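Annex B. Sample input.
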Amino acid sequence: MNLLVELGLNGVPMKVEEEMKGSEMDAEGWQKWVPIKSKVTEDEIKDLEDMIKVALPDSYKRFLRYKHFYDLQIGECGFCSHPVNSWNKSFNEMIYNGYPTEFLLDKGRIPFANWSDWGMLCFDTTKKTRDNNYPIVLWDHEVYDDFTEVYSDFESMIYQLDVEFQLSH
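Annex B, continued. Sample output.
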């Protein structure tokens, strides 16, 4: 995430929460943010899991407890915004206000990131796994019942995205 700041790619067209403020808002309405240590608690994660009725993978919980950010794009993967005081609101919006729940959540697919401009990455909770390490599926938002497994689990996905990023730079 420090690379985003170094490259100046840490601006968003909105007001940034005070703890993450990296600059004042410019004339066009953009403001810089800085990643900060996550303040997500175990209780907040448990509340999220209770709401979606699914236990999240430990690797994803570690991701949520690592850093807060506004915009994290690695290759084609754009993670759900994770601001310090409203991260769970962002997650709720992705799950409940993005696409009808009958396409994803009701079918056991929990979205956590956008894929380019045509789909979403989801945990496939229909596949029972050890330690909730669900496969990651890609959902094409134009074909409501098309789920393609693209990664074996969240940790593998992060590793592969990092490898692809390193190769492209």
